[in-house]
Description:
Elements: H1 9-19, E1 23-27, H2 34-37, H3 44-66, E2 70-74, H4 80-86, E3 91-94, H5 97-102, E4 104-109, H6 115-120, E5 124-129, H7 135-148, E6 151-154, H8 166-173, H9 177-185, H10 193-198
Parallel strand pairs: 1-2, 1-4, 2-3, 4-5, 5-6
Amino acid sequence: INMHTIKPIDEEMIKKHIQKKKYIIFIDGNYKHLDILLREKINVKTVKKIYFKKLKKLLNHMSKLLRQKVVLCLHPSSNLKEYSDYFTDFLVSKFETNKEINNASIVIFHESSGIMDAILKKKRIISLKTRILGNYIFERIKLYQKNLNFVSIDLDQDEIEINKNIIKDLDTKLKFYNSYINNYLKSDDDRNGSQKIIK
């Protein structure tokens, strides 16, 4: 056996995911999630109108620029019909975020625990910065950006300019994932589960 031809399992897994690139996916956080409604004094109808319009414009622009379809991966609490009726140019899915991440060329999000799968799979990630959803989500977004140095797009700008160089920028950010994975997402040692729970 030539040991030089044997690669670590995680490297093979990453390579497999890279080869399956097909879509731009957006991981939804639900604009009317209880985390928002319980903390913010917002008009949900106004928020929906502004947020959906800006999100649709951005995703259409990304789709045309990269010539790839867009998939919206809904939060479990989001209304499938509501999103499907508005985002008619996109594929809308629910309860399939992990599967869709496997097929993603780029993952876009603002705040979602689902992004951890994209980090583990070394996906190109764009973080959307916005105050539309209130201060709590805005601070959560800043925390993600600080810890992972994501490429960021300000959704609140009137005109958002994006060019194909964004792919190069996204590729340079992948190196920042490793320390985050090792510090926060990786099993820390060989102790069994019960010992870790006690800790």
